[in-house]
Amino acid sequence: MKDGENDTGVAKLTKAERRLKIKKSRREAKKLAEAKVDASKENLHSEVLAKVEEDLSAEELFAKKKIRLAEVGIALIENPEANIKSLKELLQICDDEDHNIVKLGLMSLLAVFKDIIPGYHIRLPTEKELEMTVSKAVQQTRLYESTLLRSYKAYLQKLITLDKQTTFHHVAVRCMCSLLDAVPHFNFRESLLANVVKNISSSDDVVRKLCCEAIRSLFINEGKHGGRATLEAVRLIADHVKFHNCQLHPDSMDVFLSLTFDEDLGKSESNEEKVKPKKKKRRQNQEGSNQVQGSDRKKVRQELMVKTREEVNADFKAISFAPDSEERRRMQSETLSAVFETYFRILKHSMDPSLSRSKTNAVAATGASGSQPLLASCLNGLGKFSHLIDLDFMGDLMGCLKKLAGYSDHFEGSSSESYLSVSERLQCCIVAFRVMKNNLDALNVDLQEFFVQLYNLLLEHRPDRDRGEVLAEALKAMLWEGKQHDMQRAAAFIKRLATFSLSFGSAEAMAALVTLKHLLQKNSKCRNLLENDAGGGSLSGLVVKYQPEATDPNLSGALASVLWELSLLAKHYNPSISSMATSVSSMASMNPAHNQVYLSTASPPQAFKDLSIERELFKPIGKPVSLNRKRTRGRDFVIISPDEVQKVENTIDEQEVQRRLEDHFMVLRDIAENERLRGELNHTLSSIKLYEEYKRQKKQRYTSNTGRRNENGEKVK
Where is the Nucleolar complex-associated protein 3 N-terminal domain (predicted)? Predict the structure, then answer.
């Protein structure tokens, strides 16, 4: 019974019903797949639309904020008294999340403050003054000044905060430097100066140059602040150097070269002090007689008038930019003392080699090179302000310079290497001679040690390592200028310079030959070195034989030698050197009575500069010389004179050159843009081809899996 029921309960499908059922299931699966594809396309389309709308809304919002910044800024500049409260809105815009809006807001506030800040220092009213009844105009002025001062303080605080962030560092520093340059007289100058000086030795070249230019402008334009900001800046820089132990970038010391000091201030001081006591005595006598004759009421009135006058004078001095002579003299003396204190600290630090070596890593962090980065700037400053140094410190200064020049290394048996370069030691010698020249009447110092140093440093100089212009300046300061030298010393330097000219480059050789010729012209007896006797010159000093290894020029015996180097220099590849050597050799037949008539006009630095320019224009022509090539006539080198180069430069139309360069770089930009677009097009085409290949392979796999079916729905093998 049960078997029969089971057989009748299970309905068997026919072939047609099975075929319809399979078709129906396939149709439903296809519809589901199409629905999923449509849903994914709709989702992707909606995401793209949302992103586009978001970008458009962000751009519109950015444009609206920019327009609002411009509107508020223009309104403030046109009528600052009526729209002074709009500064708060600009400050709020600077708190925006968009960094570009914050930068635009900072620059807008900078332009507004530079335009509306008054030309005086704002003093807020005291509590006693606020209790007094004033007019409506005074109340409006007080409201305007207090709002301006409060907004300016908030702006500076925001700049100081943003200066610590990498994103806004450049903008914040630029704003602070511009404010310090434009309004150094205004309130909160101390905060501006402190932050600018803090970045004066930054490793970032842009930030460091901005800060140095702002400080230089402050030193040059003292009329804007009366010199008070100069004193504050110099003190801050001195503290900055002390805090960093003299390991700063040289640019931080070069700003001192822009300082100026009054030379005739001491004369006016003595005259004013003679006149003022007489006037004060007359006034005191008149006031005493009036007080005796007047009544008590008059005394009270006079005391009130004197007190009021003192208060008015104090307020006038507080807002005035032009201090009196005594105040200016005091500020300049304090500025000068701070400058020399910094210079002497650098010299003292440079004299300690162990301390300088331990700080080499700190110098690398500041972007400077060498263990003594500030020494060169310090020596330049001492050379410029040497006439202002107090004579009490002159002996110590000369001792420091002598030690830094390395004099003890040769005569105290020191075997350790000098930690200063040859150029730095030459600069020490130059500064010593400048100090001596500027204080010639008050000093009686023997400079023999510095001549010894120059004599030995000529052998240590290397053109590829040391600065040739410093050597040329040393030759000018120590040998070319000044009085006539001792005959032994002059002969020693003449011989050493001839040897030097034979060993180094054209520019250094020309500077040495110019100095050599000048010494021969001023010291006629040294022309015996030009003789070609077998036993040397006809004159000889205490030393009969020439000793080239001697460290002291007075003990070298150079008068017993001859200048045989000139015969080799006359065949120099550079025509300028060969002609100069020939000119010096011809001085042997010059009349000694005319030794002061034909002195050289070109100084060693000028000769070095001219040969440096000529060396750039001195280029070989033609093909390289081969070993098997026959000797050909003609010149292998050509020299283009600077005059011809100047003529060619004058004939060039700068506008035409600029136009052609613009066209050239525009073509290059177009080529780069075309390459970029072509690359994107190729990438898109390859993606389309890959997608088509993927669809074709997918279709093939589908047909291979399902196979072909007949009309009854059966699979055909």
Answer: 65-155
590 within 8 A of 532, measured Cβ to Cβ: no
Task: Report phi then psi at 619, rounded to 5.
Answer: -125, 145
Element (H, E) at 619: strand 619-620
What pLDDT is attached to residue 686?
Answer: 84
Neighbours of 713 (CB within 10 A): 14
Alpha helices in 367-461 (DSSP H): 375-384, 394-404, 407-411, 422-438, 448-460
Backbone torsion region of residue 158, taken as left when φ is above 0, otherwise alpha when ψ lies between -120 and 50, otherwise beta: alpha
- Three-class SS state of 265: helix
pTM of the entire predicted model: 0.68
Other C-beta atoms lying within 10 Å of the C-beta of residue 563: 26
Confidence of residue 657 (pLDDT cuts 50, 70, 90): confident
Query: 3-state DSSP call for residue 214?
Result: helix
| pLDDT tens sequence across 3-43 | 444 444 456 677 777 778 787 788 778 777 777 766 666 66
- Residue 692 to residue 697: CA distance in whole angstroms: 9
Residue 622: left (phi > 0), alpha (psi -120 to 50), or beta?
Answer: left
Neighbours of 63 (CB within 10 A): 10
Share of the chain above pLDDT 70, in %: 73
* CB 151, CB 91: distance < 8 Å: yes
Q: Are 471 and 455 in contact (CB under 8 A)?
A: no
**How many CB atoms within 10 Å of residue 630?**
5
Q: Which residues, at least 6 apart from 716, have a Cβ–Cβ distance to it below 8 Å? A: 707, 708, 709, 710
pLDDT digits (tens, 9 = 90+) for 189-202: 999 999 999 999 99
Contact 457, 422 (CB under 8 A): yes
Mean pLDDT value across residues 175-197: 93
